[in-house]
Amino acid sequence: MHMEKYLILNTLSYPVLSLIMLVPLVGALLSLLIKNDTYLKIFGLLVTLVTLVLSLPLYTCFDLHTAKYQFVELRHWFPLLKLHYVVGVDGISVLLVLLTTIIMPFCILCSWNYIKKRMGEFIFVTLVMETAMIGVFISLNMVLFYIFWEAMLIPMFLLIAVWGGARKDYASIKFFLYTLCGSIFLLVAIVALYIKTGTFFIPELMDHQFSFAYQVWIFLACALAFAIKIPMYPLHTWLPAAHVEAPTAGSVILASILLKMGGYGFLRFCLPMAPAATMYFMPYMIALSLISIIFGGYLALGQTDIKKLIAYSSVGHMGFVTLGIFLINDQGLKGAILQMINHGITTGGLFIMVGMIYERTHSREIADNSALGMMIPIYVTFLGIFCLSSLAFPGTNSFVGEFLVLFGAFKKNVVVGFLAIPGAILAAAYMLRLLQRMVWHDSDGHAHHHDDAADAAHGHKITDLNLREITMVVVLAVFVFWIGFYPTPLLKVMDASVTHLLHQIAAGGTPVPAAPHEGHHALLEIGNWLKQVVAF
Amino acid sequence: MDTIITSKILLTSALPMLTALLIMFSGKRPNLRESWSIIGAILTFLSVLSLLPHILAGGSYEFTLATLYPGVNIKFHLDALGILFAGTASFLWILAGFYCIGYMRGLDEHAQTRFYVCYAVAVGAAMGAAFAGSLFTLYLFYEIVSIFTYPLVAHHQDAEGYAGAKKYIVYLMFTSKAFLLPAMVIIYTQCGTLDFCYTGILNGIFPAGANHTLVVVSYLLCLFGFAKAGIMPLHNWLPSAMVAPTPVSALLHAVVVVKVGVFSICRVMLSVFGVQMLQNLNLGIITAYFVSFTIITASIIALSKSNLKARLAYSTISQLSYIILGVAMLTPSGITGGLIHIANHAFSKITLFFCAGAIFVATGKKDIKEMGGLGYRMPITMIAFGIASLSMIGVPPSCGFVTKWFLALGAMELKSVGLLVVLLASSLLNAGYFVPVFLKAFFGKPVAAEAGLTGTLENKPLILFMVVPLLITAIISLAIGIYPDLFLNIIHVMVGA
């Protein structure tokens, strides 16, 4: 088949991608048979761990020298529509798949005591979620991608709506509507692409040369979906609500993986399929990214709720990701991808830390969780590590990503570089503020000497982390420092794919002057097709 | 001479970190805890000393720990400038270690384990900065110093402590993020590497065709980014940080923290930009006049302070700029004068801070006005104070004279009357704020409440823990004034290469 030029078929002894996608789903179904809560948790953990182990060959056997899709499985599915079941990963998606499989065991672990009701349903939903997320990253077929994309919506909605906090209804509906709105435009783009090219196969679509006006529409439709997901200013307002109300596991999934889908979408669809439009919209996307960086950081500075603070910080961090993506140079793209991984680890870690303190004090307000330094030193140590990582302290993972993005920015334009700097300053400001208040200040706002008597007067005796909790944060902290000091393996994995992506953009991305009238054709085409659908 | 590639040089910054760990795990046993601190300090100093002969012979040590991205390395490179700073700081850590015992126990301070841990880590990070072989490594350790000195400044955990510590961290983190980070990125875009230039101080790492505007911008960003150097207008954190216990002010705010800032600026001027580039763009002389403003203004403010530590803080701000002034002259004598002041100022200023702390522990006094007649009750302390003051003023045979001598030579090499006037005026101002303290102590009247009290306060064991170190540093201040050859030889290797 002509598809082979884009692919390297799976040579492992087992269908690795299908397996890591299906194991959680099968696990979810089997979990319905278990009634005991403890067994359920252990089972869920085992399933995610098995998935993790199965996914490791993706890294160890990954061919660094090619930008082709690897570990590909190709099956006929619906030949009439040229619809194939085709899954594969390249240097960009493999990292996100691994991030998913690494983060998911933490989602079960951090819910050990946090989830108090409907444990069976919780494990079921979480495992289904894992299948859908992995599916999104490995699909090389637009329809398959869209199915998984939409399939994520329901479990995530349930995670917030069932196990969420006080305003869970508001938050879950808001999340649902925002994401659905974006997906609709994505669906339109997928159909439009199929009509134009007669294929759903993503690599083939990347190679297709569309007219500039057509690219503009494709770009806008896709970008809207991804800008909501990532989220980018001014479409970010669902995120703080969802984060604050979601249970710890929900927040971790949201922050660590779901937001990355936006960035992944830009890299997989917008840039290669609409290169000329990407170049055309580049200044605007850079401007929006800079606004996200500064606005997110500024809002984070004023929060009193720890989760809200981290949520707004995510807006700022993802601003760095989109900035890196739309700089369209090697350092920017690598920095953006690395920053996606880093944000997954660091912010995941931070949300886990918040969950732990919430289990102890039943409050997410900074004021209720202050002066912890003397009481729970182990907790505070790890909180410090993740906070420093979040503010891009040198030697931690985020520094490398931020440095690369800034390098790309300064290389592109010194002004853009300097405009991104306030984001870095704000990150230091809100994270140090959080750290200062949680570690040092007393809850009533009056600073005073700490001793045991004062602690006792404080009212509650807070216990430090237990073994399960220490295991979680230690593993994440290892990643923080590993990527901080030795990011080379990750950069090598993405190298070939990023270079290939830049070639694709360079080949089709010479900024064409806008052809005003052509746009209507594309719109008409879609309109005509919609009419047909309605008539049918 | 050759460059030896060895991981041995990691030991010097690892030892204090290891010490910190040992201190952490022996928090319940104060004697053991403080022994670790002293042993760690001695071993650190010895490890620096063991590297000295090869450096004096013109060689250097190097080791690359990790590569983040091509050209962005965690790399250590020890040369003469580094060992000058590392040797001074690690030696003074030993004395400060003893002094801490007297001070912290004398005042029965809380959270002493945290104090010793952060103290050790801060020294270790300073060692790392001294050994840094790339701008990124320097930045890494510079930031670690900022974070781990926060608990030391906030040590008392009262409103004043928090306010001071907040100002401290805001100034340092803001400047490093706002100025250093872009400076580093710009330098990387221009040079493709953040490693220092290892072939003498003339050439920097910038390629011939570098964009001059960006070079100037990144230079200015570096100058302001290393706010630990206390150059005005970004000096205000230093007086606020004086809320810390005095051993912190002494070692960290006279030797480690501020010197990391000044050292970094010198390092960037000499090993990133290079003398030629700075001369071509006239940046040296601009910097010299710019820091002259700090020298004079800080001295004038010091005159107005009656709190002894506040006066010392402004004196520090003023003196630090001497170092930058000297290096910014970009002449051999000027650079020598600047760099030797890293050591000279360290010994003299730590003596002064030690004295201030000893006075506070023995009498509870902070204000100069209350110190009348103190010279008769704490004679050793006040004589040491006098010696160190003379050094600050620059009176021979103290070590401060050596600095002033070379700085004046440098100014004459540049034929700059303006800088000579600055040196002269600042010496007079120094005399103006140090001599009254001394006079007050020996010729002033005791405050009414103490009128009848006599007898020395320096005979208690804990006070002796403080008095002996400050006596030693005072004697060294004189000794390296009379015999400055060791430091001059080290600097000669750097400047002559």
Describe the SSE topology.
The complex is a heterodimer of chains A (536) and B (497).
Chain A: E1 7-9, H1 16-31, H2 37-60, E2 69-78, E3 83-89, H3 93-109, H4 119-138, H5 142-151, H6 153-163, H7 168-197, H8 202-207, H9 212-229, H10 238-245, H11 248-273, H12 275-301, H13 306-327, H14 330-361, H15 377-390, H16 397-412, H17 414-439, H18 452-458, H19 467-485, H20 488-508, H21 518-535
Parallel strand pairs in A: 1-2
Antiparallel strand pairs in A: 2-3
Helix pairs in contact in A: 1-2, 1-4, 2-3, 2-4, 3-4, 3-11, 3-14, 4-5, 4-6, 4-11, 5-7, 6-7, 7-9, 7-10, 9-11, 9-12, 9-21, 10-11, 10-13, 11-13, 11-14, 12-13, 12-17, 12-20, 13-14, 13-16, 13-17, 14-15, 14-16, 14-19, 14-20, 15-17, 15-19, 16-17, 16-19
Chain B: E1 3-5, H1 10-25, H2 30-56, E2 60-69, E3 72-78, H3 80-106, H4 112-131, H5 135-153, H6 159-191, H7 212-225, H8 237-240, H9 246-273, H10 275-280, H11 283-304, H12 308-329, H13 332-363, H14 374-377, H15 379-393, H16 399-413, H17 417-443, H18 461-482, H19 485-496
Parallel strand pairs in B: 1-2
Antiparallel strand pairs in B: 2-3
Helix pairs in contact in B: 1-2, 1-4, 2-3, 3-4, 3-9, 3-13, 3-18, 3-19, 4-5, 4-9, 5-6, 5-9, 6-7, 7-9, 9-12, 9-13, 11-12, 11-17, 12-13, 12-16, 13-15, 13-16, 13-18, 13-19, 15-17, 15-18, 16-17, 16-18
**Main beta-sheet annotation of chain B:** 3 strands, mixed
What portion of residues of chain B belong to β-strands?
under 5%
Radius of gyration of chain A: 23 Å
Major β-sheet strand ordering of chain A: 1-2-3
The average pLDDT value of chain A, as a whole number, equals 87
Order of helices and strands of chain B: EHHEEHHHHHHHHHHHHHHHHH
Rg of chain B (C-alpha, Å): 21 Å
What is the strand tally of chain A? 3
Which structural class matches the secondary elements of chain B?
Answer: mainly alpha
Helix content of chain B: over 70%
Query: Which protein chains are joined by the largest interface, and how many residues does each one contribute?
Result: A-B, 37 and 37 residues
Oligomer: heterodimer
Total number of helices of chain A:
21
**Ends apart, CA distance between termini of chain B:** 10 Å
Low-confidence stretches of chain A: 443-457, 511-519
